[in-house]
Specification:
This protein has 186 residues and is mainly alpha-helical. The chain has 2 domains: 1-96, RNA polymerase sigma factor, region 2, helix turn helix motif (Rna Polymerase Sigma Factor, Chain: A); 97-186, Winged helix-like DNA-binding domain superfamily/Winged helix DNA-binding domain (Arc Repressor Mutant, subunit A, Orthogonal Bundle), CATH 1.10.10. The chain has helices spanning 8-16, 20-42, 45-62, 73-91, 100-108, 111-115, 120-132, 135-147, 151-158, 162-185. Residues 125-176 form the RNA polymerase sigma factor 70 region 4 type domain. Keywords: Sigma factor, Transcription, Transcription regulation. Residues 26-94 form the RNA polymerase sigma-70 region domain.
Length: 186
């Protein structure tokens, strides 16, 4: 792990104490990458900018709810952005239509898959572990994460029984977790 890595957890804890400088530092650190993810999810820059604004308001107002014992700070702020984007899509009554190749590219080729994980070094590990999963397990996980599809929607989209999709996601997440743990221990 690089020595100069940004300390998301301490920064969020400072935000919880209403430290405006910490919040500004967090914004400067992540807003560009978060905007890129929001554009990818929403398909329009103006909607993405609104989503980013809403996400940072939520981050500021809920920073006291962040608990480092439950997870990483960067993952927490990206989950807020992701949920805001998915809520925006659902409120408009649609999800962005993308082909399956785009979803696979998010894990395989795109630097965005790397840029939107906890840190760049973790992104490489996540990318590696996702590539280790066979497509029937990887694809439903990516559809759920990047498109916010429910298990039912994934089953319909992939024309696969719901129970099979749930089992593949569960097994895929377990394998992903094991692979990431192995990478962290190496």
């Amino acid at each position: 792990m690089p020595e100069d890595r940004f300390d998301y957890e301490s920064t969020l804890e400072a935000c919880a104490r209403r430290d405006k400088a910490a919040f500004e530092h967090l914004y400067q650190q992540e807003s560009g990458q978060m905007l890129g993810l929001a554009i990818t999810l929403l398909g329009r820059r103006d909607h993405a900018e609104d989503c980013l604004h809403d996400a940072f308001i939520k981050i500021w107002s809920n920073a006291d709810r962040f608990d480092r014992a439950l997870g990483q700070g960067r993952a927490w702020i990206y989950s807020i952005l992701r949920y805001r984007a998915l809520n925006q899509l659902r409120s408009r009554g649609r999800l962005v239509a993308t082909d399956d190749d785009f979803i696979e590219q998010m894990a395989d080729d795109s630097p965005q898959a790397e840029d939107h994980t906890a840190q760049q070094w973790q992104g490489k590990q996540l990318k590696h572990c996702l590539q280790q999963l066979e497509r029937p397990r990887r694809h439903p996980i990516l559809l759920a994460f990047y498109r916010g599809l429910t298990h039912d929607q994934i089953a319909d989209r992939l024309t696969t029984p719901l129970g099979t999709i749930k089992g593949r996601i569960r097994a895929g997440l377990r394998a992903l977790q094991e692979c990431l743990q192995e990478c962290l221990q190496a």
